[in-house]
Write a structure and sequence with these properties.
Domain SnoaL-like: 15-109
Organism: Ruegeria atlantica
Order of helices and strands: HHEEHEEEEE
Shape: globular
Number of strands: 7
Pfam families: SnoaL_2
Protein name: Nuclear transport factor 2 family protein
Largest sheet: 7 strands, mixed
InterPro entries: NTF2-like_dom_sf, SnoaL-like
Number of helices: 3
Length: 121
């Protein structure tokens, strides 16, 4: 469980890191070399593309992502929640991430969702 926590902590730290070099170093520790990241606005593969995507989001939103839950996992699948915080502390968006880990415990595939699913009507 400690290894999983370290993976999630490094991933979360990458979403707060303005330095492209430091961000890529964090992703190297937690994201598979050819890992895939998808959310409603992006579909990128590889650490370098994910680092560039994160940098663009940080620049254009001026927000920082914070992990808001402990990860829950079974087999090679993990779920955790997060939110993006504006400089004034307001929550800009919250969401859920679902990841699949590779054999080394790094993120091989991450699917991010914004907000909670709507209730059944």
């Amino acid at each position: 469980m400690q290894e999983l926590m370290r993976t999630i902590e490094n991933y979360g730290a990458a979403w707060q890191e303005e330095s492209a070099e430091k961000r890529l170093a964090l992703l190297t520790q937690c994201f598979a070399e050819n890992g895939r990241y998808v959310d409603p606005t992006a579909d990128v593969s590889g650490r370098e593309q994910l680092s560039a995507h994160i940098g663009e989001v940080l620049l254009t939103s001026n927000g920082r992502v914070q992990i808001t839950s402990s990860p829950v996992s079974h087999h090679d699948v993990v779920h955790f929640t997060w939110h993006m915080v504006a400089p004034d502390g307001a929550i800009m968006v919250a969401g859920h991430d679902f990841i699949r880990l590779d054999e080394d415990g790094k993120i091989a595939h991450l699917a991010g969702f914004f907000g909670d699913p709507p209730p059944l009507s």
